[in-house]
């Protein structure tokens, strides 16, 4: 598509957003793109060296120098995550312009960007929520179609007590849990091909044994051969991603805790709960890194820092501290 030489940046932004809309992103995503593009454009237009107002701004006004100045002003009052997102938006915008033949190159690598922010942990909310979830699933007596509480409890327990990811749970074999009593470990095929071994305490071992016993009663002894997949559906077929996600969502509903599950976390909230409790109980970043299979020590350290911040916030909210402040002020 050939563009007229006098097309303004505002017009090109609309073309970019229209191209994005074809992929059917959420309205929130499109609004975020528009907000980030407009904010930087406004800062470029406000620069005294810019010859034209925002509505008439030509693409030639967007140089590496003008964008660096705009991003420096944009970054001042904002969090790293916001700056990183805006940089990514502008990088996508210029890649679109290069592909469409509007500009010869992408200036964004010369602008510089902050390091991507570490994702915030999203554990289950509520101090008693993990126990409430496990208890509800283990003791649920409500009518269900072909209930299998032993299997559901085993899935939850491995995520909450060993910190396994969804893909790691699906990859487990019956013989992935091995070792002498008191020294049992689960062999995990970790993310990025990094294997790890997580200790299995007697309580978790008993839950897994109960599940395998129930599976033997359902499908026979051959179903628990060492090489077979650990978690199966009600037909005895290997459990798949969608089935596992549905299983966990169903457990949340049965326990009545859907309002305590962070948005977008689902099964991952169980892994985050495991890591957060490790940090709360004094585990080091290196220990958390080994147990969860993190690629970076910074990711593990993030749990400790967030936990410390939550503890300080709890202390700060203590009414006695506020009373002490009034005493000192009086």
Automatic annotation (TrEMBL):
Coiled-coil stretches noted in the UniProt entry, renumbered to this chain: none
Domain Tyr recombinase: 119-316
Gene3D superfamilies: 1.10.150.130, Intergrase catalytic core
Keyword annotations: DNA integration, DNA recombination, DNA-binding
Residues of the signal peptide: none
InterPro entries attached to this UniProt entry: CB, DNA_brk_join_enz, Integrase-like_cat_sf, Integrase_catalytic, Integrase_recombinase_N, Integrase_SAM-like_N, Tyrosine_recombinase_XerCD
Domain Core-binding (CB): 7-98
A UniProt-annotated Pfam family: Phage_integrase
UniProt-recorded name of the protein: Tyrosine-type recombinase/integrase
